[in-house]
Specification:
The protein is mostly helical and 118 residues long. Helices cover 88% and strands 0% of the residues. Helix 1 packs across helix 2 and helix 3 runs antiparallel to helix 4.
């Protein structure tokens, strides 16, 4: 009977090790996607500012006066955009709070905090 128990323990240990490997792979995959998305967003912001700065046509378009209807449409779109982002911001803040309060659960809790921040 001890040989069966030994085999069962080995099998359980192997299963636990495999689960840990899969979780680490998923964690690395999520981290890579998060960093890649952040870098792409930064590049997009920089390229947008360069385009506005060095293309004279945009300066003319940005400085022209607009009608009240266009200003109202811009206000409505900005309001909807901000209301749409509230849930994502709250989820990020809760991730940051969890990683700060439970730092002992993470190998590197600053990465968990940064993923909530981004």
């Amino acid at each position: 009977m001890s040989q069966l128990e030994d085999q069962q323990k080995r099998k359980d240990l192997f299963c636990k090790e495999r689960v840990i490997e899969v979780l680490k792979a998923k964690r690395v995959n999520i981290m890579v996607h998060m960093v890649f998305t952040f870098i792409l967003q930064l590049v997009l912001i920089v390229l947008t500012f360069f385009e506005i700065r060095y293309n004279c046509e945009y300066n003319i378009i940005l400085l022209t006066p607009v009608t009240v209807y266009i200003m109202f449409a811009r206000f409505a779109c900005a309001t909807i955009l901000h209301l749409d982002c509230v849930d994502e911001v709250l989820a990020g803040m809760s991730m940051m709070k969890f990683s700060s309060n439970h730092h002992y659960r993470f190998n590197n809790y600053t990465l968990a905090w940064l993923s909530g921040f981004l």
